């Protein structure tokens, strides 16, 4: 089974992902100490005599570690690092890029870096770490032969994911209470408070995570989208699709003839694939898109789908969403 990465890549050929990275100069990676251990997302505890320092990480996970001052020696991404939402604003000087396409990792080059730890999210549906799911090149999976692999679960909350990488960074020697690091966390907490206030002021506002493509319209299932679950907890009524795809429950797939099955007041547009400014252009290609009343009204805001890993990025995206909620009409979809 292919992952959501490969499915969306096929559905949106030629379109670069949109998003917002974050970070400038990062502190040096702390010196090694030991012994070291960390309970990974798959439930297993990985141990080492010394704290790992030569780390290879998947893109978003690398951004998370770098936000705490842990600089990996190598990264692998699912797209060009210049457009990756997690990486595009980071200084990658001195970091070896091992792949810029989902499922393709240069393991020989990775071996030359002599890593002592691999870091990638654990995906419970696929039961695999990022970039190592079913459907990737078999030779890419040999990355796990170079060093132990750990990561935080992509589960029910981005807040939990950020906290998990904070714990991993701390185990690797990061001073997570450093004032510069704490600033992003405080900004995130402030953004959550503002988001809750916005949703409380509009208790009847409905929203839906949607990813329109040339062939189909995908409606996100919050059960498998931790950002959307957070939004629901914080007061936004994000719709749960009635019939998620049986073989891939991240989405309910609609034909363009049925694009108007759901009528939210606000569309949360999949920000990995299209900027929300393309809403009008999509309506020209697929007129039935405008049968979704929110699309016709331009009530569309980018949803940071599946890529968030840091407090700073989450704060930025929450601020955008809060602005959209404050300006939204609760009666568009009715």
TrEMBL record:
Localization per record: Cell envelope
Record-linked InterPro entries: ABC_transptr_periplasmic_BD, Bact_iron-sidero_bind
Predominant location: other
Domain Fe/B12 periplasmic-binding: 53-332
Alphabetical keyword list: Signal, Transport
GO cellular component terms, A-Z: outer membrane-bounded periplasmic space
GO biological process: iron coordination entity transport
Keyword Signal: yes
Keyword Zinc: no
Family (UniProt): Belongs to the bacterial solute-binding protein 8 family.
Official protein name in the record: Iron complex transport system substrate-binding protein
UniProt source species: Actinoplanes campanulatus
């Amino acid at each position: 089974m292919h992952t959501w990465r490969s499915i969306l890549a096929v559905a949106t050929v030629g379109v670069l992902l949109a998003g917002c990275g974050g970070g400038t100069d990062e502190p040096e990676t702390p010196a090694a100490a030991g012994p070291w251990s960390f309970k990974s997302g798959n439930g297993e505890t990985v141990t080492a005599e010394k704290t790992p320092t030569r780390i290879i990480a998947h893109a978003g996970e690398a951004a998370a570690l770098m936000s705490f001052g842990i600089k990996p020696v190598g990264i692998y991404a699912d797209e060009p690092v210049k457009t990756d939402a997690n990486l595009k604003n980071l200084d990658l000087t001195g970091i070896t890029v091992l792949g810029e396409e989902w499922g393709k990792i240069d393991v020989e080059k990775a071996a030359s870096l002599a890593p002592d730890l691999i870091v990638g999210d654990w995906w419970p549906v696929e039961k695999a770490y990022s970039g190592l799911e079913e459907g990737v090149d078999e030779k890419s999976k040999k990355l796990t032969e170079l060093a132990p692999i750990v990561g935080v679960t992509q589960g029910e909350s981005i807040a939990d994911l950020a906290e998990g990488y904070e714990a991993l960074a701390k185990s690797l020697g990061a001073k997570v209470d450093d004032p510069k690091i704490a600033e992003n966390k405080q900004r995130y907490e402030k953004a959550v408070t503002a988001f809750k206030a916005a949703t409380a002021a509009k208790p009847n506002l409905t929203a839906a995570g949607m990813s329109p493509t040339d062939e189909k319209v995908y409606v996100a299932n919050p059960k498998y989208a931790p950002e959307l679950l957070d939004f629901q907890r914080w007061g936004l009524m994000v719709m749960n699709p009635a019939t998620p795809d049986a073989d891939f429950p991240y989405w309910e797939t609609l034909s363009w003839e049925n694009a108007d099955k759901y009528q939210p007041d606000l569309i949360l547009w999949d920000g990995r694939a299209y900027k929300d400014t393309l809403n009008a252009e999509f309506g020209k290609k697929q007129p039935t898109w405008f049968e979704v009343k929110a699309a016709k009204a331009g009530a569309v805001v980018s949803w940071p789908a599946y890529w968030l890993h840091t407090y700073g990025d989450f704060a930025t995206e929450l601020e955008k969403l809060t602005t959209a909620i404050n300006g939204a009409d609760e009666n568009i979809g009715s």
